[in-house]
Amino acid sequence: VGADDAVSNVVLMPGQDNVGTPQQPDIRVGIGPGFTVAAPPASQLEIRSAATTEKIRLTNTTANDSVGFYVGSGAPEGVVTAQLGSPYFDHANGELYVKGVGDNTNAGWKQVHSGQVQMAKMSRRNSIQWIPGGVPTKVDFDTVEFDTVGISDLANDRFVIQRDGNYLISANWFVNSPIMVNGERVSATISVSGAVNWTKQADAAVAGPPADYGNAHVADVFNLRAGDVVEFFASAEHSGLVPLYGGSYTPTYARMSIVELPRTTAGVDLAEIYYTQDASLQSGMLVSLDSSGVGRVRKTTAANDPQLLGVVSTQPGQILAGDDVPRGGLPVLLSLVGRVPVLVSTENGPILPGDYITSSSQAGIAMKATEPGAPVIGQALEGYEGNGVGLIKIFIRSGTMPLLEIIRELKAENVEFKKRLEILEKREPPR
C-alpha cells in the first residue's frame, strides 16, 4: 500500500502454506517509515511517526468528535498540538497527560496523577554533625520516614522531585551548646537546584540565660519540576565548630520534610492524612477505623458500620498533617469538612437531596440512612435513583441519624397514606 493510498475495511488473517495447512497467526503490521521484510515490526501492530505527530485517531462519526494518541519524551506543554481530550504518553518520565483545554493548540495539557500523596521526611538522629562556624553546611541525614514514592536520596542527603507541582517544604535544626554566645545566630536554608535555582532562609538568635540554645526553622511552598533537587544547609554565626545534635537529643534533631500539595485549589473540603493497608481504596469510598494502628483506616464492610469514620477526599482544598501518624501503609486523604463526592447505591432506597448518608453492605459504598441512631457522614446535596453504583456530592456532617429526621419521614409517609385513603373512599362509597 502506498503512502497516499486510501485503505478501508481491511481484514488481516493468517494464511495457508502451499499444501493448504493453516499457519500460526503471527501477523505483524507496520505503519510508517523504516519497516522491511528483514526488519519487521517488533509487535503485532507498530506505528511510527515523528515525536509530535498523531499516532492514532479515534473518531465518533455521529457527533464528529475525535481524539488523537501521542507519544514522546518530556512534557507536551507548548510542544504537541492536539485536540481536546487527547492522551500523551511521556516515555522519558513515565507520565501520562491529557489535553484538558483548547482544540488544536499546544497548550492546556494536564498531567494525570494517582490519588497518592507524595511526601517524605529525612532527619539526623544517630550522631553529632559538626557545623563549621560561618560556613553553610549541608545536613548529613541518616533516617528516612513516610516516603511514599521514593523521592528521598539518603546517600546524597536530598529529595529528588519526580513530577511537576507545588510542594510544602520545611527544615529545622536546633543548637544547644555552651559553645554559642548570646546574640550569635543560627540559620536554616532550603536550597533548590534544577530547572529553577532558589533558596529560602530563616535564622534565629541564640538566647539565654544560659546563652546556649537557638532554633532555626524555615518553611515555604515551592513550585518544583521533575528532576529538581532539594537540600538543607545549616550555618552558625560562630568562630568555631558548632554541634548539630543527634542520638540522645532526639527532640532536637535536624529534619527536612516535604509534602506535595493538591494540583489545584478547586476543592471545597478540608482533608486530613490517614493511612491504609488497602491499595484498592479510592476517592469517594467510605472508610472506618482500622484497629491495627493509630490513624489507620479501611473500607467499610457492613451496612450502618458502627466504626464509620468518613469518606476519602477527591480533590481537597486544604490538607492537614501532623507528626503522630503511624509509619508504613499508604496515605489517604480523609475529608473533614465541606462538600465532597461519594460513591453511593440505592441499596436502602432512592437517595434524595437532604437524605442522611451511611455505609451500605458493599465495601466502601454509601447508601441512604433510615435507622434511628445509625452513624452518618453527611447529607446528600443531590439525588440518585440509578442502578449499581453512582457518584453524588454530599455535605460532610458526621454523627448519627437524628430521631427528628425519622419522625419527619414518618409524618410525610402518614400524610401520603391519608391522601391515598381519601382517594379510595371517594371512589368506593360505603355500602
Q: How far apart are the termini?
A: 89 Å
Shape: flat
Strand content is 35-45%
Query: pLDDT under 50 segments (min length 5)?
Result: 8-13, 247-251
Fraction in helix: under 10%
Radius of gyration, rounded?
31 Å
Numbering strands along the chain, what is their spatial order in the largest sheet? 25-21-26-30-29-27-28
Task: Please state the structural category.
Answer: mainly beta
Number of strands: 30
Average predicted local confidence, pLDDT: 78
Largest sheet: 7 strands, mixed
Provide a count of the helices.
Answer: 1
Give a short synopsis of this structure.
The protein is mainly beta and 431 residues long. The protein has one helix at 403-427, and strands spanning 29-31, 45-47, 56-60, 65-72, 87-90, 95-99, 109-112, 119-123, 129-132, 137-138, 143-145, 152-153, 158-160, 165-176, 185-193, 198-205, 213-224, 229-236, 241-244, 255-260, 269-276, 286-289, 297-299, 308-311, 318-320, 330-344, 356-359, 366-368, 375-380, 390-400.
Question: What's the SSE blueprint?
Answer:
Elements: E1 29-31, E2 45-47, E3 56-60, E4 65-72, E5 87-90, E6 95-99, E7 109-112, E8 119-123, E9 129-132, E10 137-138, E11 143-145, E12 152-153, E13 158-160, E14 165-176, E15 185-193, E16 198-205, E17 213-224, E18 229-236, E19 241-244, E20 255-260, E21 269-276, E22 286-289, E23 297-299, E24 308-311, E25 318-320, E26 330-344, E27 356-359, E28 366-368, E29 375-380, E30 390-400, H1 403-427
Parallel strand pairs: 1-2, 4-5, 21-25
Antiparallel strand pairs: 3-4, 5-6, 6-7, 8-11, 8-20, 9-19, 10-18, 12-13, 13-18, 14-17, 14-20, 15-16, 15-18, 21-26, 22-23, 22-24, 26-30, 27-28, 27-29, 29-30
